[in-house]
Structures are given as structure tokens and as C-alpha cells.
What we know:
This protein has 470 residues and is an alpha/beta fold. It has helices at 20-37, 66-75, 94-99, 115-130, 155-165, 200-207, 217-232, 241-255, 270-281, 285-305, 309-313, 318-334, 336-359, 363-392, 395-435, 438-469; strands at 40-44, 55-59, 80-84, 103-105, 134-137, 172-180, 189-194, 198-199. Strands 1, 2, 3, 4, 5, 6, 7 and 8 form an 8-stranded mixed sheet that branches. β6 (172-180) and β7 (189-194) form a beta hairpin.
Amino acid sequence: MPGGRLIGSRPVRGGPVPSPRVAALLTGAARVVLGGYFRAVEVQGRAALPADGPVLVVSNHANGLVDPMLIAHALGGLPRFVAKAGLWRFAPARPVLDALGLLPVVRRQDRVKLHDRNAETFARAQRALADGATVAIFPEGTAHDEPHLLPLRSGAARLALGARAEGAYGLRIVPVGLVFDDKVALRSRALVVVGMPIELDGWLADRGEPSADDTDRRAVEDLTARIARALTEVVPTADTVEEAWALARAAAVIAGRPGGSREAASEAPLSLATAIARRLGAAPDAARGRVRQASESYRTALERAGLRDHDLVSQEASGRLVWRAVGATLRTVALAPCAAFGVAVNGLPYVVVRLAGRVAPKPAAQATMRVVAGAVAFPSAWLTAGALAARRRSWWAGVVVTLAAAASGYGAVVEAERVTALRRAWRGRTRRLGLRGRVDELLDARRHLVEVASEALEDGSKSLLEDVAR
């Protein structure tokens, strides 16, 4: 991976950058935030990251401030992010943004003079790449809630071609897909998919234009299209939000089906469900339509029955549920003092985070609002608790209380999730037993969805092969 080429590895000509210690601290902080915000974060394809040389990371932009944190987590370090210049409008933030090594780019909708500012930013980014750094850019230009990629701006292609003209030979363009179980919900799941790098030198050689640079309009357009194809290979695509949800539900059913049996099914890896959803999205229109219809019918039937898919196929014995309930009760009793302390300290910050998400007008901005609110509210609560302990006891008591406040809050959330899952399992089993004859109807609807989705996957594979052949 490009660990030796991240910010702080050695001086670069792209402007001020954090020191290696600061970069490592920021990356660690991002991981802590992600661990609290998400229930799980998966990284797929990390082995595809180049081990050395200049690297340009291109990614979809679906979840605001969370997106760069996920990229830093996947890379294992802090790249030079190209960010929208609007972030610099808040004067107190400018020194921080500059110190982080962010590179401001002005978009057309910002309604300011583009050429001079962007020329300077691109020159800095190209020099950084020529010095072997890793630069990350979101070529869609803005965070959004569409279930597919927006038309890519030409900035990533111009940056890559210009950097090569500056001497960034061996440049690799790495597509990174960011996928979310549910952008709106707290404690959902996230997936980072690292695609196969585009070898810029090889791409130019295949075109017969090894000396093309960012002034070659045709080369820029063709490379932009190549980057778009690379990104579509690492993110699911759908025409509408409704279709995206339907395909995701169908993919979850397929992914959670252990060998086609009706054994107990745990939550399927998001990476597997995403790969299936991506293939479903590549199926012909008619096949996708049949999957969407079958998925909606199955969802409606489950909602009427008050069940989830897991409740229908799970064969977990009642005895095991009883033992899980006993274990949960014992843990709750044993950890009650710690949990009470965690809730007392972290309850108000948690409410603040939830309310902050509601302020954002669009889902793509909710995560940013929540992360910013959490970054202020939670540490403030921990430090306040520590300060009170230090005042009454001693400074070391304050340190212990501060650390305990953070740990107990996280522990309380995890235990609450376990209890909630157990309660849902009990409720699902009870309702399933009460349905009796209707269970077979639900299983028939599920089997129909599996059959239709399987046919679409075969059609999608044929469609993909035909596209490659063309």
C-alpha cells in the first residue's frame, strides 16, 4: 500500500503538510470516529493498493465528511485531499484546513474566478504527485444522494495527466467505492471497495500518445470516461432510489442464504451483498424490473407479517435464545454501574448528535453534521466529567474518569445493540410461530425472489461479457 507516499512521509512541493505524527494522530482519530459512528466498517481489495510511487485516489462522494475519513482508514494514512473551496469561507477553519494539507478547488457553482485559483491548486497537487505523494479527489464534485454516479468532472483526469507531465511517472489511479447500508441511520455499516489501479503510463502507451498532458482535450475526456468505468465497477448503480433499495434487499436475501438452506442466517457481509447488488444493477432493464417487483412484493409481505427476512429463515433453537437472554441479563446486572455512568455522561451528547442530523436538509449532509456535533459534544462531556473528578479528587482521578466516560459510553451502545438484537429475535420467533400457515406463503415469495434474482444475475453476467466484447 502507499504508506510511504502519504502525507508526512517526506517533504513535497505541494504546500504545507502535517508532520508524520500529526498525520498518524489524525488517521487514528478518524478510525475512532468511524468505530463509534458505524457498527462495522469493511475494507475490500486493500491488497490492490500500490506499494510505492505516486497514487491518485478517485472516489464516489455519497456521505459528506465521512467519505474522506473512510478513505484515510482504508489507506492507513492521510492523503492530500482535493476539497471544495467553500470550506475555506469559514475564516477560523482556514489555518486548520491548510495545515491538514487540503487543496482547495473552486467549482463552477461557487461563482468566483476559476482559472487562477484552480491553476494554483492543480499545480500544487501535480507537484505533490511528482514527488511521490498520494492525492485523493472526488471527481463528482459534490456529495449527493443519487443511487448512481454523477457525471464526472474532468479534474481528476487533468490532475493525473498534468502530474505525469511534471514527472510523476508510474502514476496509478486507484478507484475507491464507498457504500453504506443506510446513510441516515446511526450505527449502520460502511464498505470501502478498492478497485484495480489504472496504470497511467500503460493507458497512454496503448493510446499511442505517451506524451499527452492536461492540455490535450481528447486525452482528458477519454481518461475521465475510463475513470468513470473504473468507479462503476466498485459501487452499485440504479436508476432510482426505490430501485436501489429493492436491489439491495434482494442482494441481502441472496447473500444471507447459507448454501440455499434454511439454517440460521446471520447478517451477511456488506461486501458480499454489495457485489451482488452491483451485478443486479448491471442486468438488463427487464430483468432488473422483475427483481424490483419481486423484492417489493416480498418486503410488503414481510411487513404485513411483522417479520424480517432473518426471522423467516432462522432456525435458532428456543433453548439457545433462552441462554442468550440469560447471558444478556447477567451482563446487564454486572455492568449496570458502568452502563449507568456511561449513559449519564454520554446521554446528552448522543441526543445532540441525533438532533444535529435532523438539521441537515439532505441525507448526504447528515453524517457531516453528526460527526461535527459528535466531535464537539462527546469530548466536551468526557472532559467535563474528568474535570469534576479532578477537582474533587486528584488529576489522575480526572484522567481515569475521562477515559472511563469514553469507554463506558461505547460499551453501553454495544450492549444495547446486543439486547435489541435479542429482543428482535424473540419477537420474530414468536410472530413466526403465530403465523402458522402463512409461513409457507412467505417462503414461496422468498423463493420467487431468489429465482428471479438468480436469473437476473445470469443475465447481468452475459450483459457484462457483451459490453467487454464490444
